[in-house]
Amino acid sequence: MSEKRILLASLLKPINDTRLYEKLGLSLSKIKGASIHLAGYETPIPAGAPANIHFHPIFQFKRLSMGRLTAQRDYYRLLQHIRPQLVIVSTHELLLPTLLYKARYKGVRIVYDIQENYSLNLRSQHNYSWPLKHLLALSIRTIERMCATSIDHFLLAEHSYADELPFLDNRYTFIENKYKASLKLPPLATPVSLPKTGQLRLLYSGTIAEEYGVWEAIELARQLQIVRPEVKLTIIGYCANSHTLAKLQQACQALPFVEMIGGDKLVPHQEILEQIPKSHIGLLPYRPNASTFRCIPTKLYEYMAHGLPLLIQQNPLWQGIVEGNDAGRAVDFSRINVEELTQELSARNFYKQGIPTTIYWESEEEKLLQVITPLLPKV
Q1: How far is 154 from 148, CA to CA, in rounded Å?
Q2: Cα–Cα distance between 159 and 340 in angstroms, integer?
Q3: Strand 258-263 vs strand 231-238: parallel, antiparallel, or unpaired?
Q4: Record's superkingdom (predicted)?
């Protein structure tokens, strides 16, 4: 039997990324006769990977540098070296070199794994000046439109993308970022309640950014100190914005109850997960923004899988999942009555019906294999 070579590539995600490796990569490695290749940003290669998964940490550059252009050249050389029959692209910048590869070699199939609406993110967030962010957003959408007819299928991480992206043409499948445990979790005792006295540990994990409410998390911890002096906030993840990072580092030095892990470097996903069972409340204090309002953060599923009570920003999509499963409470982080909130949370039980089975990756793996298998050569 000939080898079925699949390349999964992301320009900005590390090769040990949760979705790239732990979800898509490991799930596809179950296909009989498949050889899985992962190309991504340089980080340590995961230990204990299946023998048919191969890692190519070929990207290493500053986000705003010429390295992003030379990375596309390096990626095209990797394509020619591996000669995959199926390429799953997770970054818009890799679409054009992938199409060039497809034009040169017969029978190549392309899947675009859309993890973010990049164009909307640029327009809605404030990382660049107004003219630059709109120019970048237009260029991304132009590339996606140009490439769309040559893409065989689209994987959508969010349901909202089906409405937001005009080039999909019904060739898509929802593959959500549900929880995938690297190790089987022990049975959790439910319902869950918060400690009425002693230390109360808050957790903010993942991407560290103003849009994701890192300052709101710190302000909540500061106010909680008034009624629960032993409050501790752990911030763990990576902050790409150097200005925000410098301010955070100063804040953490001035506030002994705030601890930051990572910040200036990527934190292995397993280290982030290890903080969850050590915590009492998981925070999702996202600022209302068009780029995130209709998306479900991966950490929401991660917190729920560990039975962690949540405090989320008011959002109808999130509230249906969180409050519908007794997993936490929606609040407006810009105006919280801390005394009332503390009393309410202390009196509540969470996860009274147990951990919901709908939050796990297994259902997404089944859909993924149903989509990808027919795209592979019949050999």
Answers
A1: 9
A2: 35
A3: parallel
A4: Bacteria
For residue range 112-128, list pLDDT tens digits in order. 999 988 888 778 776 66
Enumerate residues 6+ apart whose C-beta is below 8 A from 68.
11, 61, 93
Domain membership flag for residue 183: no
What's the CATH code of the domain at 35?
3.40.50.2000
Report how far residue 227's alpha carbon sits from residue 372's, in angstroms, rounded to the nearest whole number.
Answer: 53
User: Could you tell me if 58 and 74 are in contact, meaning their C-beta atoms sit under 8 angstroms apart?
Assistant: yes
* CA-to-CA separations, 239 to 163, 197, 207, 375, 377, in angstroms, rounded: 30, 33, 6, 37, 41
Asked whether residue 194 is assigned to any structural domain, the reply reads: no
Q: Which residues contact residue 245 at a Cβ distance below 8 angstroms, ignoring those fewer than 6 apart?
A: 208, 239, 263, 264
pTM, full prediction: 0.89
**How do strand 258-263 and strand 86-89 relate by DSSP bridges?**
unpaired
Q: Which residues of 245-255 are buried (b: 16+ CB within 10 A; e: fewer)?
A: beebeebbeee
Question: What pLDDT score was predicted for residue 188?
Answer: 82
